[in-house]
Specification:
The protein has one domain: 2-Layer Sandwich (Nucleotidyltransferase, domain 5), CATH 3.30.420. Helix content is 47%, strand content 15%. It is α/β, with parallel strands linked by helices. Helix 6 packs across helix 10 and helix 7 crosses helix 8. It has 10 helices and 6 strands; from the N terminus they run E-E-E-H-H-E-H-E-H-H-E-H-H-H-H-H.
Length: 240
């Protein structure tokens, strides 16, 4: 059976901002999926330890006051998320995350921030993966399609129902269903093993980053640098 018919795990974070080395986790979800249907869900609400900007609260609906009152310590949340993901990888189950480079880099930064074992450490030094990122795959297999590539827009393109955008559990499930829909449409994607698809995404992301950096520099941003690492940025500085 092709990978998209096997068990998959969706992963999503809602955060305090859009810069993964600086933003903090607010909510998170990990959803086990079989045949497109959720079979288990786990969710977290964290107290990020910093104020949640109003623009972020407007997107995911979590205020600073609620996070402080109801959220668990950020260190505990990051540790549990990392342990859950590494457990699935240790079993060979692919983790699906839309724009994985954001979520996994942010989680990596949180682990470092709280002096916790990294994802690689939890896998006894083995690289993380397989990761399946519908954002990276869609951008590679349908490069010239016009329009936005947000999760909402790509759900429309592939006929996937997104029940509540920016709810971590709904987004995680939708990411899996989009990945499955891409595989159904593009046989070349379905034919790859999860490990092969992971490696192809490393290549596709690097190609996109190189092209985008070239575009930005042509437009006048002479010093623009687009990190080409996927699914986690290679250099994560210490952050406090």
């Amino acid at each position: 059976m092709a990978w998209h018919g096997e068990p998959l795990v969706g992963f999503d974070l809602e955060t305090t901002g859009t810069e993964p080395l600086e933003a903090r986790i607010v909510t998170a979800a990990i959803v086990g999926v079989q045949s497109g249907e959720p079979v288990r869900r786990r969710g977290w609400l964290a107290d990020p330890g910093i104020r949640i900007p109003a623009q972020a609260s407007a997107i995911h609906g979590i205020s600073s006051e609620r996070a402080r009152a109801e959220g668990r310590p950020a260190r505990e949340v990051a540790d549990e998320i990392a342990e859950t993901l590494s457990g699935y990888w240790a079993q060979g189950v692919p983790v699906v995350a839309y724009n994985a480079a954001f979520d996994l880099t942010l989680l990596t930064a949180e682990l470092q921030r709280h002096d916790l074992p990294s994802l690689t450490d939890r896998l006894s030094g083995r690289p993380i993966g397989p990761v399946i990122d519908p954002y990276t795959i869609d951008r590679a297999v349908d490069r010239y399609r016009k329009g936005k590539r947000t999760l909402e827009a790509v759900c429309v393109e592939y006929g996937v129902v997104l029940d509540a955008a920016h709810d971590a559990s709904a987004d995680a499930l939708a990411a899996v269903r989009v990945a499955q829909a891409i595989a159904e449409r593009h046989g070349s994607v379905a034919a790859l093993t999860p490990a092969e698809l992971h490696e192809r995404q490393v290549e596709w992301y690097a190609e996109w980053a190189t092209d985008f950096q070239r575009f930005l520099r042509k437009k006048g941003s002479a010093d623009a640098v687009v990190d080409a690492s996927w699914p986690v940025r290679e250099l994560v500085p210490s952050v406090g």
